[in-house]
Amino acid sequence: MSEVISLEIDAPDDWHVHLRDDEMLEAVAPYTANAFRHALIMPNLVPPITSTALAAAYRNRILTAAGPDARTDFTPMMALYLNDDLDTADLLAGAADGIVFGAKFYPAGATTNSAAGGTSLLDYRATLEAMAGAGIPLLVHAESTDPDIDIFDREAVFIDQQMFPVIEQIPELRVTVEHISTRAGLEIVQDHPQVGGSITPHHLTCDRSDLLANGMRPDLYCKPVINSRDERIAIAAAATSGDPSFFYGTDSAPHPLGKKEAAKVAAGIFNAPYAIEVVAELFHEMGALDELEAFVSHHGVDHYGLERATTKVRLTRHVVDELEPAESMRTAGGTEVRIFGADAARRWTWEPVP
Ligand code: NCD
Ligand code: ZN
To answer: How far apart are CA 184 and CA 131, in angstroms?
Structure first.
């Protein structure tokens, strides 16, 4: 017989989130700001956030959009988009001033709003060396864009071709493999202490059969594409293992419904509203709730050299599916966005501990 489960954890962090801008920012920012202490904000706006000035202005727009129920300690952590427009001196100055947290590399064409990305990581060698010297982390969308490589192998190929050379040649650089989707992503993290890995709710709980087997599901389409069942099981095992190199990053990435249900489906899953519920339900199913706090609240701040939270959140799993969570939301202008994870949110609620 099931019973109510209640646990308190240190306030969680989201180490990878897309908040967009303007009306979409206003609609989605409160979900992240209400739930998470740190949120590492992805810079793939159009045009991208490539300078400290752009990051500072975007950070102000985020704080305004965060809304009245935002956590008082909600902190947007800003990343600059690493491409030819980025000026290393500006990055270093922005980091020294506490405005810029890291730099994100997107291979051009790999994902949503990556057209301004780079070709090869080592083209930015001088910048990467300066980042290593200043302790600025490199965040990587690890996916080959080679059309001859099968879509499900592109993470492994990118890691072989681009990440190993960087970590071997610049071993002092702190690196994060973002949104790990395969065992190749897990292994480079496990084998190198300076390399961390963020893991999303959808790569933890879905596999490509969910995406493709019972009517193709554009709501589950993201980059890197959700991979095989074996990869999913390995990712869930890593997240629940207590290995401090793995931490939560939702990759919450809202798109208007019209772009998700289209001839060419936009990549990205909006999961911020139920990001805590989904991971709590998975850890519960795996008998690993005692590892939840480490994964969502400790490993990321430890990896990035920040202080752990001093406030807590209480999570409750109810006995029956008594809640009716919304499966989509609308922006002020009426644009609909589908929400991932409503099933888990039928059982779980959470609130800050006063
Ligand atoms: C992200 C987006 O929509 O900005 N999409 C996605 O599929 N994950 C970009 C990204 O992180 O790849
Ligand atoms: Zn992302």
So the answer is: 25
* C-alpha closest to that of 205 among 345, 351, 39: 345
Pocket of ligand 1 (CB under 6 A): 18, 44, 111-113, 141, 222-223, 251, 253, 267-268
Which of the four pLDDT bands, split at 50, 70 and 90, describes residue 223?
very high
Encode pLDDT of 129-186 as tens digits: 999 999 999 999 999 999 999 999 999 999 999 999 999 999 999 999 999 999 999 9
Of the candidates 14, 90, 207, 251, the residue annotated as catalytic is 251
Tens digit of pLDDT for each residue in 61-104? 999 999 999 999 999 999 999 999 999 999 999 999 999 999 99
Q: The tokens of 86 are what?
A: 């980025």
Q: Is 251 a catalytic residue?
A: yes
Between 18-27, 188-197, 245-254, 313-322, the lowest mean confidence (pLDDT) is in 313-322
Q: What are the residue ranges spanned by the domains of the chain?
A: 5-352
Q: Please name the CATH architecture into which domain 5-352 falls.
A: Alpha-Beta Barrel (3.20)
pLDDT band at 322 (very low <50, low <70, confident <90, very high): confident
Atom of ligand 1 nearest to the CA of 255: 3
Strands of the sheet containing 138-140, edge to edge, are: 14-17, 38-41, 75-81, 100-105, 138-140, 175-177, 195-199, 246-248
Whole-structure pTM value: 0.98
| Pocket probe mutation, ligand 1, options 14, 44, 106, max atoms within 8 Å of Cβ | 44
Ligand nearest to the CA of 253: 1
Quick one: CA dihedral 114, 247, 301, 126, positive or negative? negative
Which H or E element spans position 52? helix 52-65
**What pLDDT, on a 0 to 100 scale, did the predictor assign at position 354?**
87
Residues with CB under 5 A from ligand 2 (ion): 251
